């Protein structure tokens, strides 16, 4: 098996990837918070993890991929303060929090389909794993990592050695980067909520004092409430991947808080290392280097930036392939329109290769593997594709090799080749073409001639190219 090198945020180094179990790799990607549409920044992160997964497949691994759907507990503030995004979304749209989550989950899955992102083996919803999350808090309670305040149960980060092992930041640096949200009752600035009470002190609902019930709440040993946002990813990854905690991914905004907290609570509970490789994608920014964010409400969705304007969403996938996942990417109109031209050019280069699939060229394949296995160097892999297309290789080898590469690129090139060849051809003519190609492969010239005459009788011209045939209406 070829070596794969990946940049691990834990060590800040490109490391050779070594799976826990050679047969199947465990991959966990932090999924969306489904209170609104995903923006194309979020989708950049999912394109990067899709490429990672396809690279693992291409290298011959099988992958068990879990993606969570955050449908509860993500608060507006970064530090466990403020309103729940779902309750807020529900008010905004006059729906229940559950309906909001369901609607935007479906919209998200549609986006993934449009971008040719392979679905995970399982989507895990935070609300389906409340029991596992409570059990995790109980374990932390037994080990004395938690304390209670009037609004919830918190993890005491001072008790966890190496709290900064992922962020590599000192407390003062973390404090500087965070928005100021005061919570006087917390023991340490970095402590985070494991369980939030629906009502202060976890007392029961009292209609004379409490404005309205939360829509999403559960009983727990500490009081009625809901889990803290970070908890779900620990509980669900351990429940679904067991010991196969190989790779955990997300955007770079997750490094200092979300993933740092996931590591703290998981390792405190189990005493074992929680995931070997932490891989993070850089942001999609808007002009001026500002991160595209849902909370800004001026974000672009796949629908409004691409589909509505009749731009193929795969143009966006192609744009993401052109920038290394650890480099910031800036979105602007002009560059997307240029990328569309670049994508059209690539498609026409491939579609116009006159030949049917032959042998994959090993020399180009080796170069392609070298690029993708070097921390997913997709810009370099596209350069290999261009060199291949311009090379003097036989058409049959060219087409076979580029379509093989598309298992990683995910640009649906094979579909486009088929469409271009088959457009406007009736089904029975397409079947005759398949049979004729087979006859030619078998050097059965008599049969090949017979089928050609048959096709021509139906009003279609047949042109025999070097590697295959072209058929079009006379
Ligand atoms: P969220 O739905 O906010 O939980 O985010 C879903 C994923 O998108 C997370 O992995 C984030 O790190 C990532 N993300 C958020 N904003 C951006 C952005 N502007 N560019 C790239 N990834 C992002
Ligand atoms: Zn997560």
UniProtKB/TrEMBL annotation:
ATP binds at residue 294. InterPro entries: Cys-tRNA-ligase (IPR015803), Cys-tRNA/MSH_ligase (IPR024909), CysS_C (IPR056411), Rossmann-like_a/b/a_fold (IPR014729), tRNA-synt_1_cat_dom (IPR032678), tRNAsynth_Ia_anticodon-bd (IPR009080). HAMAP family: Cys_tRNA_synth (MF_00041). Residues 17-339 form the tRNA synthetases class I catalytic domain. GO terms for biological process: cysteinyl-tRNA aminoacylation. GO terms for cellular component: cytosol. Binds 1 zinc ion per subunit. Monomer. GO terms for molecular function: ATP binding; cysteine-tRNA ligase activity; zinc ion binding. Belongs to the class-I aminoacyl-tRNA synthetase family. It is an enzyme of class 6 (ligase). Keywords: Aminoacyl-tRNA synthetase, ATP-binding, Cytoplasm, Ligase, Metal-binding, Nucleotide-binding, Protein biosynthesis, Zinc. A motif ('HIGH' region) lies at residues 32-42. Zn(2+) binds at residues 30, 233, 258, 262. Residues 425-468 form the Cysteinyl-tRNA ligase anticodon binding domain. The keyword Nucleotide-binding applies. Its cofactor is Zn(2+). NCBIfam families: cysS (TIGR00435). It is found in: Cytoplasm. This is Cysteine--tRNA ligase. CDD domains: CysRS_core (cd00672). Coiled coil: none annotated. A motif ('KMSKS' region) lies at residues 291-295. It catalyses: tRNA(Cys) + L-cysteine + ATP = L-cysteinyl-tRNA(Cys) + AMP + diphosphate.
């Amino acid at each position: 098996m070829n070596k794969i090198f990946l940049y691990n945020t834990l060590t800040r180094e490109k490391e050779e990837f070594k799976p826990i179990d050679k047969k199947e790799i465990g991959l966990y990607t932090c999924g969306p918070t489904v209170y609104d549409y995903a923006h194309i920044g979020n989708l950049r992160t999912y394109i990067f993890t899709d490429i990672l997964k396809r690279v693992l497949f291409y290298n011959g691994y099988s992958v068990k991929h879990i993606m969570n759907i955050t449908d509860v507990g993500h608060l507006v503030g970064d530090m466990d303060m403020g309103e729940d995004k779902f309750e807020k979304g529900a008010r905004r749209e006059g729906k229940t929090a559950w309906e909001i989550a369901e609607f935007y989950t479906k919209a998200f899955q549609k986006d993934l389909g449009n971008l040719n992102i392979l679905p995970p083996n399982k989507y895990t919803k935070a609300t389906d794993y409340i029991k596992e999350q409570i059990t995790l808090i109980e374990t932390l309670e037994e080990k004395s990592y938690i304390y209670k305040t009037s609004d919830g149960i918190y993890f005491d980060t001072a008790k966890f050695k190496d709290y900064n092992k992922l962020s590599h930041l000192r407390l003062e640096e973390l404090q500087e980067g965070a928005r100021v949200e005061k919570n006087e009752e917390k023991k340490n600035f970095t402590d985070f909520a494991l369980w939030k009470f629906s009502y202060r002190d976890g007392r029961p609902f009292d209609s004379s004092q409490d404005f309205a019930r939360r829509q999403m709440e559960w009983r727990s040993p500490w009081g009625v409430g809901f889990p803290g946002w970070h908890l779900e990813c620990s509980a669900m990854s351990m429940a679904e991947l067991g010991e196969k905690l190989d790779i955990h991914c997300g955007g770079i905004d997750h490094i200092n808080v979300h993933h740092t907290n996931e590591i703290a609570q998981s390792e405190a509970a189990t005493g074992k290392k929680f995931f070997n490789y932490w891989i993070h994608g850089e942001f999609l920014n808007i002009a001026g280097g500002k991160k595209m964010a849902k909370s800004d409400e001026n974000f672009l969705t796949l629908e409004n930036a691409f589909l509505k304007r009749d731009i193929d969403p795969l143009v966006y996938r192609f744009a993401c392939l052109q920038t290394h996942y650890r480099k910031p990417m800036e979105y602007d109109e002009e560059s997307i329109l240029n990328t569309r031209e670049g994508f059209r050019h690539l498609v026409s280069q491939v579609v116009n290769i006159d030949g049917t699939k032959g042998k994959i060229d090993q020399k180009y394949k080796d170069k392609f593997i070298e690029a993708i296995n070097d921390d997913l160097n997709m810009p370099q892999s596209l350069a290999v594709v261009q060199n291949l297309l311009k090379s003097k290789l036989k058409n049959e080898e060219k087409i076979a090799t580029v379509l093989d590469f598309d298992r990683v690129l995910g640009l649906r090139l094979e579909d486009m080749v088929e469409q271009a060849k088959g457009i406007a051809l009736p089904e029975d003519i397409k079947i005759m073409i398949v049979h004729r190609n087979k006859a030619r492969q078998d050097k059965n010239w008599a049969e090949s001639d017979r089928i050609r005459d048959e096709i021509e009788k139906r009003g279609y011209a047949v042109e025999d190219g070097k590697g295959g045939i072209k058929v079009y209406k006379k």
